Amino acid sequence: MKGRSTVVPIQPWRATCIQMPSRVARTAADRREAWPIISGNIERGLMLIDRSVAAEQPPPRLVLLPEFAFQGPPRGESVDEWIGKACYSVPGEITAPFQAKAAELGIYIGGNQFEADPEWPHRHFNTSWLIDPAGDVILRYRRIHTAQWVSPHDLLDAYLDRYGVDGLFPVADTELGRIGMLACGEILVPESARVLMLRGAEVLLHPTNEPYSEAEEAAKIVAAAANMMYVVSANVAGPIGFSDGEPMNDPVRGTPVQGGHSRIVSYKGETLALDDTPAESVAVSSVLDVEALRAARRDLTMANQILRTRFEVFRPFYDGTEFWPANEFLSEPMAHFKATERVAAAAVGNLIRLGVAVPAGGTGAST
Q1: What is the residue range of 243's domain?
Q2: Number of domains in the chain
Q3: Over the stretch 185-201, which tens digit does the pLDDT of each residue have?
């Protein structure tokens, strides 16, 4: 864990989701044309942060912006093309205005962007970050569970050599409590939130860019209740990043797929705030009581959901289990997302071999 250790009781504090629309940078011809789009999204985010601080009493101590809020996602670009057009370092040009805003307002700001790091040439990461009230980036989490873009898992051995196991699922120890981050569909991988809990996380920040899904809404509630942590999930307003200006439309309405449904969930699995519309909003806001959470985690009764978990019984089932192969782009960086097709085929083969999936026309695991 990185950051300031908590040495005094934490007073209840407010978190707010910034449900903001964004324009996608992939429509630009090059980096010069993309930056006005990105900077316009940044200005929109800053304006909504100011609005969120003025809207509530007490004002939020932490605000969270959605996934892809500033650049949108790539679609057909190669990795190097997307890096050249829209990717920036962390900290860097995208985080800098939010670092200044965090210091100005004395709040924490969480966000997400596509990151290019000179230390890892020809690779970009889907990176979530947290800025503290001093304006410092205190947490940088690079999305692991992704089927099309570069993941630390694709260069796992080198990544572990560089950052150690703590670098895979970082947790920041702050004056608000211990905070971790996951992006978008990773909420459907239960082990991700569970590992953050095992590392001490009490608040899970979840920047996302998704259409409404009962599965993902349920996953947010389960992640909170099963791990006894707060979940703060901020989604994009208006069209999601994959449908803005693209032919990804709702099959019924024929219109761009919409976001919305930002949500804050308590450590008991109770929804504390929800905007079930795709409109621009700072209304998803709630007070979080971390000391109550800590007391609940110390409780000796069956109300303590994590107290009764018997991890030893799970270990034999995970030992040697591999679905998506690691280190597939360790020696040769992924040049284009289409390169993942062969890895996906290998992963399906692993599912069949392990008996999780059945081959077409088959009745069981291959031998």
Answers
A1: 13-304
A2: 1
A3: 999 999 999 999 999 99
